[in-house]
Amino acid sequence: MVLRRLLSTLRGDAPSPTQAAVGSPLDLLDPVFLENPYPTYAALRVHDPVHRTRSGAWFLTRHADVAAAFGDRRLGNAPAPTAVIARRNRDRFVCADVAANILPFLDKPEHGAVRRIVAGALRARLGRLDLELPQLAGSLLEPCLERRSMEVMSEFGRPLSVAVISLIMGLPIEDAARLDAWSDAFFHLFAPMPSEAARVRVDQDLAEFRDYLRQHAAARRRAGGDDLISELMQTEAEGRILSEPELLDACMLIYADGIENIDAAIANTLLALGGHPEEQRRLEREPERARAVAQEGIRFDTPGQFIARIAREDLVIAGRSIPQGGVVLLALAAANRDPVAFEKPDRFAPDRSEGGALTFGQGRHGCLGANLVRLQVAAALQALFTRTRRLAIDDGPVRYKARVGHRWPERLHIRFEPT
Predict the structure, then answer these.
(1) Which residues have CB under 8 Å from 21's CB, separation 6+?
(2) Of the chain's two ends, which shows fewer C-beta atoms within 10 Å, N or C?
(3) InterPro entries, per this entry (predicted)?
(4) CA 364, CA 345: separation in Å to the nearest integer?
């Protein structure tokens, strides 16, 4: 295996970097890689920073290359023509029609106007969230205090993200179960469709998601509202508003994206604190440091490990030729551990002075929900470390979901004492 040879090279027992770079390419679903991708990232950064994966994609791991790729107009967002969600399939498949409307798959000129509308609506609604978040986080923690234990993902992280995004969008919290199922289907847009049967199920779920949101949009048109759906309907950019399909699919994206990574970000940050007990003790003494800890947690072990771009023309990155139509994977998590960009990057250090983490991308394709993620993770940490002490992670290995491009623990059990 190429990666075993690369790792051996780092240990000093392989013949040469050139020989180390020969062999089988990275399998992004390799269980060993999914459990801990960081040694692999370190090896690739040194010896094969533009690596050809088993699927044929080009995998970028150095901070400089990933940062440059975000601003490279030769790399586009639109899916490859051969993909199930390619624009040419939008009249055949609901998944392709949704992809044609949402920001992660848009290029200029559509991208600019849609982004400005969504950004304006989000700013208007998120400005009121600072006062609401601590109360929500505290209320979710309350039932767990008496029994002195909790499963972070299902009992705290996920309910918090669902409550917050439901509040922002004005959707009934009692609909959370079916919205959760639809959101899971939505994320199939960001990975190869595993089968035709899966594509049919995803199309059905996305059609139901759209119909649900259409009913809520119609209610806002009749009676108005003070929520994100209402803001999206009213916000203009470049002399236009969102069409109904754009509105519904933007709402779908915001809801799904708003719940999918929060629980994992909270869990991953708690795991990082568990591995750096001096930082955990400091947070226990100074819970007001929660924002800095959240920011570092999201850099240190980001739930969204990499994202895709498509080469719009033949190009060369770090000496490697990539043909037009080639899939380029930007390894955000690898870039965030690059020692060229961060001093001692494998150390969890909330006080680090360097900026430049690429967790949320940058530039015109930076994540619009970045501040929402930071706010929620910080609120969760502040609630935990204000209301509890001697927090510890239960013994046993942490398992991660087998999802390409994501680092989501299946579960994380913790125990603590109430303060």
Answers:
(1) 2, 5, 6, 47, 48
(2) C
(3) Cyt_P450 (IPR001128), Cyt_P450_B (IPR002397), Cyt_P450_CS (IPR017972), Cyt_P450_sf (IPR036396)
(4) 26
